[in-house]
Amino acid sequence: MTEVTTLDGRGTPAARPARRRLSWSWLGLLPFFLFSIAFMLVPVAFLVVGSLQTSKGALTLQNYADLTRPDIVSAYGSSLEISAVTAIGGGIFGFLLAYAVILGGLPRFLRPALMTFSGVASNFAGVPLAIAFIFTLGLQGMVTSLLKTVGFDIYRGGFSLYTKVGLELVYMYFQFPLMVLIIAPALDGLKRDWREPAANMGATSGQYGRYLALPILMPSLFGTIILLFGNAFGAQATAFQLTGGTINLVTIVIGAQIRGDVLHNPGLGYAMAMGMVAIMGVSIALYSLLQRRAERWLR
Question: What is the pTM of this model?
């Protein structure tokens, strides 16, 4: 059989297209894909199947219908309220703190100290955090006892660590450091790429903040607050250890439905978990959208 040679416009043999080889770099993504399948896709599929079954394994939609029960709606409402309050509060406080250290002209040594603390505090959650606050602001906590010695009893004044307000205070401990860690790169980019050019062109501080800094930072601010919302919405161990389950949160109710002795309906627990997955999915989608908009300014 005669091989046909293809000629280009000048009459010379055209070069054959190079064969595309599969890059070995894809092997680096294999652990990520395996982790995603094992800890995201498989659990979600398990929740979907479990939420559509009764305790005897029969197919049903009653579990999703039960999500409209007053106690379930109240649990979602409490979780959404606490998440929104701590996300907004932690976002504002964390942003002001990061802005003061990065752009506020404070001494340089404060930034490494703040970033180190934020890195530790943002991961200090769960049972250890609850115990730390009980030892600090509990009925017999260190700060509570010190305040009593000067004649001020915070519990007689109406404060209680074991209420919704106390839980929001505890959540703030890991919310605002997370805000500092995430918003710091955006503030660095703002300082590096926009502040000096604006000053060179004669913009005042008010004009710079109103027409440049605020519009550029808005997507990052809202995106990070949404991320903080999702971070608080999925918390369970801190609330359970601190309050013993007395606050009606969706994560605590799910645990009671799946493992409880009295409230034992795994299908309803799985349906509630699917509701959480939907809320978290919307939060992640909004965060990703806002981050893409923020990156256009900071490229």
Answer: 0.83
